[in-house]
Design goal:
alpha+beta; single chain; 117 residues; flat; 2 domains
Amino acid sequence: MERVIQLVTVLLIFIFVLFITFFTTRWVAGFAKKASYSRNIEVIESYRIAPSKFIAIVRTGSRYLVIGVGKDEISKLAELEEESIDFNTDASMKGFDFAGIIEKAKERLGNNKDGRI
């Protein structure tokens, strides 16, 4: 009986620690999200050109800059006019058909008798 009480006590302590950890993590994440929010700086779009190199369009205040981001450096490449930027958020999903991908995966799995993909 004493071992059952010890087991229940340990489980309750474990659940309490998980509970505290969950809410602490949510609180810290909310705090970090608010701290990183800026009305004056926004990454509009970024594109990877090499494993550790990106090109990004960044809005700083009312200016739009094209920057090159490398492992140890950031370089200004150009300044853009707002009219020349395509803000269409669906452009990155153009040609992406999730239902089609799922159907192809089902067909592959259905045709494959040994269970390998």
